[in-house]
Structures are given as structure tokens and as C-alpha cells.
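Long-time lurker. I teach an intro course on protein structure, and each term I like to show students one example going from raw sequence to a predicted 3D structure in C-alpha cell notation. This year I'd like something fresh instead of my usual example. Would anyone be willing to generate the C-alpha cells for the chain below so I can use it in lecture? Attribution to the forum is fine with me.
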Amino acid sequence: MKKVAIVGCGGSGKSELARKLAKILDAPVTHLDAAFYDDEWNALPMEKFAEVQRGLVAQPTWIIDGNYNSTLQIRLEACDTVVLMDVSTLAALWGIFSRQIRHGAGHKGNGVHNRITWGVIKYVATYRRKMRPRVMAKIEEFASGHAEVVFLTSRRHTRRWLEQVAAQHS
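-- Reply from a regular --
Happy to contribute to a lecture. Here you go:
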């Protein structure tokens, strides 16, 4: 496990998993929200964002968390492991609101990028129905055959998986 793409709904725990996994694997972590947005929430042009990701995946080891379906193919083609944070809608909604309570709004420099808008709430509330099938199709098309695919369905499941990974890498 040297090149890990972590995907899933907002609030599912992608960034926290990325930080913990990076410590276990001693690998650099990139939170795509930090690469995509500046401090004023201005988005990087999509071609430049894709270029940044192509540079990241060319490295010998990496952990990258974030969905960004339009550039997901770049990460999926290069990874050896895909982790889909496949939590329930309620768990993801709780995740975005509890993160806001714990960290406040804005950029925190550790992968925490909080900005709750109606658009974010709608995205999280409809992710399993609208976005998840698209992500699953891309995983099947671009990662199947060369990458291990891990589905983590709850925070407890995530903790147990991390313990297993830590035991294998100690």
C-alpha cells in the first residue's frame, strides 16, 4: 500500500483517515480541498487542478483524499489502493455538522475545510443516490484489476481497518 486514493461523501471521514493512514504508512498526504481552494474559497482552474494531481500521483508514495469526480480518473489509474468511505447519509451529515462544531469555519491547514452551505448540505444528502453510482463506475473502470478496493461503512469499521493496517506495517 503505497499509493492510496480515498474517496467518499463530504463528512464521511476522508481527511481524518488520510492523516491517520499517513502516520501508519509514513507517506505524504494531500487533501484535495487544500489544493483546489485558496484562503478565500477561490477554486483553481480545473486544468491546473488536474495538472497538480498528475504531479502528485507521479510520486513513489502518496495518500490523496477527496472526491472531485471530474479528476478522479487521474488518481484511480495511478493508485494501488482505493478506499471508499461508504458511510450512511445520516453519518455524513453528522460528520459535516460535528466538524463545524469542533473546528469552526474556514481552512485549518490539516485537511479540514469547513464551509456549510445549502449546496454542501444538498450534496451530502443526495450523495448516495446521485454521486456514489458515478464514483463506483469510475472505480470499476479505472482501478479494477490493479488496485485493492476497500469499502469502509462506518467510523467503527474505519477504526478496525486502521488497526489491521497498523498491525501489518509494524
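Some talking points for your students: The two ends are 13 Å apart (CA to CA). The chain has a mean pLDDT of 89.
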